[in-house]
């Protein structure tokens, strides 16, 4: 028996997760995209990451981006950080939310942040200790939560165990990332079951899907059926790496909003404005983005001939 939430909160991650995997976009254009997105009704935007510019060149200039954007009331601007230094810089830039990340698989964690999972979890407690007195919320994200490109399947129980550590470390919300699009609806259900068994409150859970294998919207539906009301999505489907064949971006924000609205689920987002943002994103990266709304348009747009 499904129990869809009546309202879903979407976090737009295109400016970070999307653009970090695209050719470098100048700061001014990143600012313009974030400002356009904040005008659509989206209440949460992952704007930047404070990471090594050597590791992720397109995310250089995060402080400049944060200083230049219009801080629209009611919109929470978030930043991903890999370490304490990033957290300090994020707090100095007055972000509303910090995201810390740990992979469910050792190999991916080592490659992504050059630390073991245990080292990352220790560092996350330090980030929370810094952020909490500054009034900045910390979300703990488990990446490769549905499978790892190096290690293959990841046991849901292991993901749930890491989630428990993140809560113990002081994270107030949790995200589960399907980093390379390995999830299917059955795996989403299995993870949510494992979280319930581990007594993780599903009310603080957000899901983050990539559409690498075409399953992102189906995975969202699996989450909705379990009452999950927080999803990440990327405008136009920004993301994936032009140099890594087969990689692809997050579930497309405007396609997700289109589906949810037709299902009677409110998002607070204006679809037409969102489609205009997707056009803007497409111009920025100078390639065709995989957005159904850009290609086919909404189902209510009638054929004229
Ligand atoms: N912001 C900016 N620069 C940073 C930084 C931060 N948060 N943390 C470290 N650096 C710099 C260091 O100053 C150093 O610069 P230098 O080479 O000019 O001296 C360089 O990055 C390497 O620092 P080091 O501490 O030796 O780290 P490392 O080489 O082991 O790399 C990370 C570790 C975590 C800094 C790096 O892998 C990283 O930023 N990863 C982010 C990955 C990511 O964003 N993935 C996608 C999201 S899941
Ligand atoms: Zn991602």
Tell me what you see in this structure:
- It is a single chain.
- This protein has an 8-stranded parallel beta barrel with strand order 1-2-3-4-5-6-7-8, surrounded by 7 helices.
- It has helices spanning 14-18, 27-38, 62-68, 84-92, 106-113, 117-131, 156-168, 185-197, 216-225, 253-262, 271-285, 292-295, and strands spanning 9-12, 44-49, 76-81, 97-103, 137-143, 173-178, 205-209, 230-233.
- It has a single domain (9-303), classed as Aldolase class I (TIM Barrel).
- It is globular.
- The protein is built from 12 helices and 8 strands.
- The protein starts with 8 loop residues before the first strand and ends in a 10-residue tail after the last helix.
- The relative contact order is 0.15.
- With 305 residues, the protein is of the alpha/beta class.
Q: Could you give a quick summary of the protein structure above?
A:
The chain has 305 residues and is α/β, with parallel strands linked by helices.
Strand-residue proportion: 5-15%
According to CATH, what is the class? Alpha Beta
Shape: globular
The CATH superfamily title: Aldolase class I
What is the succession of H and E elements? Answer: EHHEHEHEHHEHEHEHEHHH
Identify the notable features of this structure and list them briefly.
305 residues, alpha/beta, TIM Barrel, 12 helices, 40% helix, binds coenzyme A, binds zinc ion
SSE map:
Blueprint: E1 9-12, H1 14-18, H2 27-38, E2 44-49, H3 62-68, E3 76-81, H4 84-92, E4 97-103, H5 106-113, H6 117-131, E5 137-143, H7 156-168, E6 173-178, H8 185-197, E7 205-209, H9 216-225, E8 230-233, H10 253-262, H11 271-285, H12 292-295
Parallel strand pairs: 1-2, 1-8, 2-3, 3-4, 4-5, 5-6, 6-7, 7-8
Helix pairs in contact: 2-3, 2-11, 4-6, 7-8, 8-9, 10-11
The structure holds coenzyme A (COA) and zinc ion.
């Amino acid at each position: 028996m499904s129990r869809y939430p009546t309202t879903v909160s979407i976090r737009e991650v295109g400016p970070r997760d999307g653009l970090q995997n695209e050719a470098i976009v100048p700061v001014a254009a990143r600012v313009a995209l974030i400002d356009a997105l904040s005008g659509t009704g989206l209440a949460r935007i992952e704007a930047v990451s404070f990471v090594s510019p050597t590791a992720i060149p397109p995310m250089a200039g995060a402080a400049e981006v944060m200083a230049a954007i219009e801080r629209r009331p009611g919109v929470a601007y978030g930043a991903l950080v890999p370490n304490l230094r990033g957290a300090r810089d994020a707090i100095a830039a007055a972000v509303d939310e910090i995201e810390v990340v740990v992979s469910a698989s050792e190999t991916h964690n080592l490659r992504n942040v050059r630390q073991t999972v245990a080292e990352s979890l220790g560092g996350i407690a330090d980030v929370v200790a810094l952020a909490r007195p500054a009034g900045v919320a910390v979300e703990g994200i488990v990446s490769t939560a549905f499978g790892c490109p190096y290690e293959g399947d990841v046991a849901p129980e292991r993901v749930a165990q890491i989630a428990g550590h993140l809560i113990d470390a002081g994270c107030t919300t949790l995200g589960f990332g399907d980093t390379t699009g390995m999830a299917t609806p059955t795996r989403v259900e299995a993870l949510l079951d494992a979280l319930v068994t581990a007594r993780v409150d599903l009310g603080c859970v957000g899901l983050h899907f990539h559409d690498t294998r075409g399953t992102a919207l189906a995975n969202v539906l699996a989450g909705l059926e379990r009452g999950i009301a927080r999803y990440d999505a990327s405008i136009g489907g920004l993301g994936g790496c032009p140099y890594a064949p087969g990689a692809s971006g997050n579930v497309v924000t405007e396609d997700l909003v289109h589906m949810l609205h037709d299902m009677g689920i409110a998002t607070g987002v204006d679809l037409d404005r969102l489609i205009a943002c997707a056009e803007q994103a497409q111009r920025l990266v100078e390639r065709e983005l995989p957005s159904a709304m850009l290609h086919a348009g909404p189902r209510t747009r009638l054929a004229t001939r």
